[in-house]
Request: fold
Amino acid sequence: MNAVANPPHLRVEGLTKTFGPVIANSDVSFQVERGEILCLLGENGAGKSTLSSCLYGFYQADKGRIFYEGKEVEFHSPRDAIACGIGMVHQHFVLVTPMSVIENIVLGTHEHGWALGVEEAERRVRDLCGRYDIDLDLDAKIWQLSVGEQQWVEIVKALYLGAELLILDEPTAVLTPQESDKLFRIIRRMTGDGLSIIMISHKLNEVMQSDHVAVLRRGKIVDTVRTADVTKEDLTSMMVGRPVMLQAEREDMEPGETILEVAGLRVRNDKDQHAVKGMSFKVHAHEILGIAGVSGNGQNELFEALMGVRDTDSGQIWLHGEDVTHQNPRQMVEHGIGYIPDDRFRAGLVGSFSVAENTILGLQKNPRFSDGPLLNFRRILNFANEAIKRFGIVTPGPHARTDTLSGGNAQKIILAREFWSASCCILANQPTRGLDVGVIEYVHQMLLEKRRDGFAIVLASEELEDILALSDRIAVVFKGEIMGVFRSDEVDIQKLGLLMAGQRDAAAQSDGKPYVKVV
Ligand SMILES: Nc1ncnc2c1ncn2[C@@H]1O[C@H](COP(=O)(O)OP(=O)(O)OP(=O)(O)O)[C@@H](O)[C@H]1O
Ligand SMILES: [Mg+2]
Reply:
């Protein structure tokens, strides 16, 4: 009877949402209690973002009922959901970049914003930031902020609009591990105030910090469990339907000849400042060189320079002993380099193209896909179908537009293409970002297989466990410089963490070994 007196904060009953023939959500039912964190967990394409968008009024469900504090509600647009007390931060968020933080927060919210007067609005925003210890420069322009800071703007905006139930779609995908910890601390403060959170994450360490987990599989809820009652392995089996190896196992292997060599590389960022300040390293055949660093310490510029996407100021790059400095991306592809960029829709895919077109993007001239000047569509389709099968890409077929794919499934197209086309070297910048654990396992196996085949691999990841498990050597980068290169069996997470924060001395003291060991 308690349930009647004290209804859940949100209850969903039999929600179904289709896109043409695709059933994204099928008869979904679950509930969120006040003051709890509920995690939505599921493979790429399981329907998490779609479900969230239905709860936020962004999509209208075909069937099903939504109850807010026991009262049935119907949302025709996000405006209705906001009025009811629901806020959402999307997987790919939208802010007006030339405007300031405060303008974005009060923008388009007459009843809360301009009617109050800017000063009153600003005071309220400051109060909110103060209460939750959110560090935001309200006068900064959006374009000046990091992606992580932009996400804070979105969160504060939702709170400012009166959200009591906040939906966060993969909020930590764009955060460093330190920023993610902070997000969780703040979220806990919010739930302490009686707010409720629905959160989507593929990172099991984070999922374990929630109160309940609702597991989705192919659009259906498999089960909703109390987090305290399950292990990461249980959750993995529930979502993937089979046990998954959460940690890669790398066999011992002698490195071969030098494939990629970089000396004194200096590269500028978009603001024309030096982001890479004289990096030098070698990568051999049968070797994975891990790049560990907090994002924004020159990794992206390094990868872009290696691929020829961004020009170098000084320094040299050799491939198999041949000087390839200043060559363009097409030439680098022809040399056999595969490139997985960190921002898939900016650098790796064309959203309006079909899945098939994207699986061969940049490879149009490859004899496998063309007969002289003409493309061979039959072979392209075969290749795309093979990629869809091998990577388990969730899509109606090779003709579907790429921007209708879920985040993780879009990433798999790049992986399929680059793993196939590369012949000697792979540059992988955050290759598993946004992927579910089953696919991560597969990508790790692919990287290790390429290593076995004699490839040289450069791998950047913010997941230090992955870097440690996969890499033969690890270069730690900080403010555009390499703090040291270590054999992966010589360092641990703690020492890497200190070096990534630029604390060489503390890192040296932590185990009494010299802090720079170049091997
Ligand atoms: N606008 C759309 N048009 C057509 N199909 C869509 C659209 N949006 C989503 N889908 C399809 O609905 C299914 C669920 O997608 P959704 O984005 O909800 O997955 P997800 O669980 O969020 O995955 P990820 O973890 O990769 O982000 C997928 O098959 C996707 O291709
Ligand atoms: Mg999603």
Remarks:
- The pocket of magnesium ion (ligand 2) is lined by residues 48-49, 91, 406-407 (CB under 6 Å).
- The first helix runs from residue 2 to 5.
- The radius of gyration is 24 Å.
